[in-house]
Each structure stands twice: as structure tokens, then as C-alpha cells.
């Protein structure tokens, strides 16, 4: 009798142990499957991230190669649509617009404390003045003497402005600031005052507050 009970108890323990081993085996399989799925997800995220970064890098590189251009607003002011570089250089710079509205330039600026120049300026020096927040008035021989004289008087009364002839520009009278430019019809054109009010030490100025004196005078 006791022998039969012992055998039954031993068999029951053996079944329980077998069930425990089976449960442990299932848990191990589940852990392996979970870890495997997690690794697949992580690998997918890594690959997706690499592809996204490569795609963004390629898009940026392509955008960097795309030449900038002027975009004309409703007010007639043209705005350069790409960031303009600000590196100081000792060599000449070929600018994509005339007169230039920004870009690499010489370390020396043209005095722009209401300075009126009678000779053409080196663009590399005048661009540095624009970086300081100046408005640059330029004109060709097609501009009337009366308009030139009137504009000169306005510039002389306006700190952070300068004026000079430029026979290479397209229109008789043009106004330039860092990243912005417009043509005006005459000295009495109301857009002259609007341009000065907006761009003399305006929000476009990369180095607001930098001096317009102590530079070159011709």
C-alpha cells in the first residue's frame, strides 16, 4: 500500500517537473522571439535613419549647388533668396548681381557715414559697408544731374549710407542693402524714403551697430 502511494507521488512529481521544464522552455523561446523582433525593429530604425540622413544630406548638397536669385516682393524690393556668405577675402570677388548686395568681401569697409563718392568703388569694400547696415545708392550716367544732386544731399544727411557711380548696373538709379535691392525712377520717388527707412540699420543687417567710420575714403 505504502509502495503504491510512493510510486504515485513520484509520478506526480515527475509530471510537475516535466511541465515546469516545458514552461521554462516556452519562456525561453518567447524571450528569444521578443529579442529577435526587437533587434529587427532597431535595425529597421537604424537603416531608415541612415537613409533619411543621406537623403537630407543629398537634398542640402543639391540646394547648395543651386544658384541664388532675386525674388521681387509686392513692394518692388528684390530679396536674394539664399544666405549670403560673409568671409573676409584679399582677392576680387565675382558677385552674381550688380551692384552686389552681400557675399564675401574685403576686411576694409568704405566709410558710410553719409559719404558721397564721385568715383566707382570696389565692390568688395562697399559690400562690407552693407554688412554694417548701410544703404548704398548707385547711379549711372543716364541719371539726371538733378537726381544725382538730390540723392547726394539725402545721403549726406543720413548716417549708415553711401553713394557712388556704377556704370555696370542695369538701371540709372538703384538702392542696395544687405540681401535687398530696388530700382527707383528718380530722387523724388517715394520708394527712396521707404527703402532708407526700412534698411538703414534694418533687420537685415548682419553686424548691426558696427561702425561706418574708420574705413576707406576712396
UniProtKB/TrEMBL annotation:
<keyword id="KW-0812">Transmembrane</keyword>
<protein>
    <submittedName>
        <fullName>DUF3105 domain-containing protein</fullName>
    </submittedName>
</protein>
<feature type="region of interest" description="Disordered">
    <location>
        <begin position="1"/>
        <end position="22"/>
    </location>
</feature>
<dbReference type="InterPro" id="IPR021454">
    <property type="entry name" value="DUF3105"/>
</dbReference>
<dbReference type="Pfam" id="PF11303">
    <property type="entry name" value="DUF3105"/>
</dbReference>
<keyword id="KW-1133">Transmembrane helix</keyword>
<feature type="transmembrane region" description="Helical">
    <location>
        <begin position="32"/>
        <end position="53"/>
    </location>
</feature>
<feature type="compositionally biased region" description="Low complexity">
    <location>
        <begin position="1"/>
        <end position="11"/>
    </location>
</feature>
<keyword id="KW-0472">Membrane</keyword>
